[in-house]
Amino acid sequence: MQTRHSSPGVSRRQLLIGGASLLGYFTFAGPTFAWTQAFKGTPLHQRFMQLSGLLINHHLDEGAGLRIGAFAAQKYAQLDQHIDSIVAIAEQQGATEVEQFFDAIPEGELRDLAYWVIAAWYSGSSSADADAELFTYEHALTFQTTLDIVPIPSFGLTGPNAWNRPPAPLLPVPRF
Amino acid sequence: MTQTASADVVIVGTGVVGVVVAEQLLDAGFSVLMLDAGPRVSRAEIVENFRNLPLGLKGSASSSYPPKPWAPHPMPSTGNPEDDYLQLEGPDAYAQTYIRYAGGSTWHWAGTCWRLTPDDMRLNSLYGVGRDWAFDYATLDPYYNLAEYSLGICGPSDPALQWPPQPRSRPYPMPHLPFSPGEDKFTRVMKEKLGYTNVPVAQARNSGMPYDDRPACCANNNCVPVCPIGAKYDAATALNRLEAKGAVILSNAVAHRIETGEGNRIEAVHYLDPERQSHRVTGNHFVVACNAIETPKLLLMSADSRNPNGIANSSDQVGRNMMDHPQLALTLTLDEPYWLGQGPVVNSGIMETSQGDFRAEHAGAYFRMNNFARNRYETFNALKTGKVGRALDEEIRRRTACTVNVVAAHEILPDPNNRLTLSANKDWLGLPKPHIYYDVGDYTRRSAEVYSMPIARRIAEAMGATEVKEPSAFAQSKHLMGSTIMGTDPANSVVDPDCRAYDHANLFLPGGGAMPSTACGNSTITMVALAFKAAEALIDQARRA
Predict the structure, then answer these.
(1) In this structure, are residues A56 and A98 in contact, taking their beta carbons and an 8 Å threshold?
(2) Contacts of A55 in chain B (CB under 8 A)
(3) How far apart are CA B276 and CA B255, in angstroms?
């Protein structure tokens, strides 16, 4: 039976179940997870990864990028325009690495976004604050810079009593 | 109120002290019921909590252990002191960290096990300060041995590297853990430039072999806040074994009142469950071992007509003499890489600076270079430089390799003015929060002025520090001591040499609260030795009864 409260072909029971499911989705999965799923595969997601590839000279984890990008889309109302602007600057410079165009990004919103993206990839977190969002732990790039000699805490680096390896030189930084 | 259960012995607290006492009693044939205010969780849950913390919180000892509403414990400050669990007052903040979970605070301890020295137990006789212990080192030695074999404590076999520097009556059950390259370098520099011996820490961590059905340490460098593989002893690893031996363990059971009866004997403990329902647990003997903050809080909360100042408090010493190891931590930036982070987070230390005739004038100090991997502390500092690309990679790598944390941990004297009382500010169950007044005192401050900080600066110089960040105030070491102090005179002490309450023949209060001196080394092994001694006395008393 249809009522004026239901759409054709959708029963009140189905609506209630659907509503409860949606509520559960946000309640149990959390809004960040919902944003991430909504962001996944969108053109903005792809452009965010393009921006990240320009700002970071390393291999980037897709899962971490999805979470950072989804968070950025909530944090920066003009994310899409800002991405276009920064990518355009890089293209004008013919840049393939961040050193080749970063100084050309004007101070202000664009520079702040660029640096936030870099900080998010390196720290795996949305900020240094205690209530920051975690995007990734083991893929945070800070750990990759020292992975030849320093363990990621809680992940073992050696076998029992076998950690007295020779000191590593400061340079070069491992490739990652 | 409901009558829930009864046992020969009721133990409040499932931390290392309660667990050790429980196992001795079970092995002697007594029934044991244990209460813990907090939840019982799996190691995997805590490890996931840690891994899911943002990087800025990875250095927090407590953030992997969110407190239950009914069992609050100290957490990073919210900025509003009234919201904090510990209500702090005084020149220095007794801002401790401990965990109200089944298994207690050994979940997040480093595992460091420095014994006291004979002199540490005779401060008053030798130097005219503080209190002497009620017995000597030779009396404590066999209980230290029991503690080392029970917890699985590794340590050096070379007498020149052992602490205290005197012959051992029994070898360590496992060899000491190897040093990382940075610790090797620190050890060499200290010896060559300053003449100090940086010795391996005796630690409750499996070294090169399984022990106690737990695996060998594999350098996960995460002892604090949680060892992900259980290579480090924590009391939670013993709970299943205790249950297999017949113990009844009630988690989420918040003891809030101790009931006395005829002859001022303890009759029961009352606890609240998460639905705020009260339950009564009876027994013949009682052990309260829920750390040197929660134990005096419970004793004071339980004041009755027989004990108007609180249980075990005819001396008015319950909650007084709060002690710790006040620490000053320097962050050094060095010319050369030390590459900390391989192996356990604390693996060596300079202990000789804790002893000497100077203790008549000021406190001794123990120095250590912490071995925490540094990325978690230095990443945001590197990002603040504004560097990008290869320059940023190199900045993070340099800071991780070339910064170290050197800590001076001091002893402190018992001072009755350093006192825990019951705050008017209440927790979720309506129970009073602990209020603690604390001043590290002139004895410790004088050490920092004329002794420990001058040594720390020489250490920094010897290591080639190009930048030295000195702390502006003492931090706390999370080593809770003194609040149910031991002595031979019931007029000025709470417990006798067996940690038995002077006021209640069937109540034992073993643990850090009983310690009348702190020395400079971490307190847990001494707490455990006292637990073995108390258990022996309790068993003897129960059998005679």
Answers:
(1) yes
(2) 388
(3) 11
| CB of A18 less than 8 A from some CB of B | no
The whole-number average pLDDT for the span B503-517 is 98
Mean pLDDT of chain B: 97
Q: What are phi and psi of B310, to 5 degrees?
A: 110, 160
Phi, psi angles (nearest 5°) of residue A80: -65, -45
Beta pairing, strands B2-12 & B174-175: unpaired
Measured between alpha carbons, how far apart are the two ends of chain A, in Å?
61
User: How far from B188 is each of A165, A167, B194, CA to CA, in Å?
Assistant: 17, 15, 10
The alpha carbon dihedral of B141, B142, B148, B154 has a sign of positive
The maximal CA–CA distance of chain B, rounded, in angstroms, is: 76
> How many interface pairs between A and B have CB atoms less than 8 angstroms apart?
180
Delineate the domains of chain B, giving CATH numbers in brackets: 1-77+97-109+234-323+417-440+479-545 (3.50.50.60)
Q: Quick check: B66 contacting A, CB < 8 Å?
A: no
Strands B154-155 and B465-469: unpaired
pTM of the model: 0.94
User: pLDDT-derived band of residue B448, with 50, 70 and 90 as boundaries?
Assistant: very high
Q: Is A167 on the interface with B (CB under 8 A)?
A: yes
Structure tokens at B225: 């806040």
Question: Is B371 in contact with B221 (CB distance < 8 Å)?
Answer: yes
- Percent of chain A at pLDDT above 70? 82
Q: Which amino acid is at A83?
A: I
Q: Which residues contact A56 (CB under 8 A, 6 or more apart)?
A: A98, A118, A121, A141
* Residue A22, pLDDT score: 40
The pLDDT tens digits of the residues spanning B48-88 come to: 999 999 999 999 999 999 999 999 999 998 889 989 999 99
Strand partners, B249: B34
Residue with tokens 């931390």: B15
How far apart, in whole angstroms, are the C-alpha atoms of residue B177 and residue B154?
7
Q: What are phi and psi of B52, to 5 degrees?
A: -90, 5
pLDDT over 70 percentage in chain B: 99
Which sequence positions of B are flagged as catalytic? 479
